[in-house]
Specification:
The protein is mainly β. The chain has no helices and five strands.
């Protein structure tokens, strides 16, 4: 599961990570990439 949050309400900064804290990169509305492995995750079918 990818967790999406904004650590600072006043800034337009969004963070993406897995439940265990592993950093994830946003690619588009359907794809994310686990930064350490390059594996992609999808939320669209």
């Amino acid at each position: 599961m990818v967790i999406i949050y904004r650590p600072f309400a006043d800034l337009n900064v969004t963070r993406y990570e897995l439940e265990d804290g592993t950093p994830v990169r946003f690619i588009n509305d359907c794809l994310f990439e686990i930064e350490s492995t390059g594996q992609t995750l999808t939320r669209c079918i």
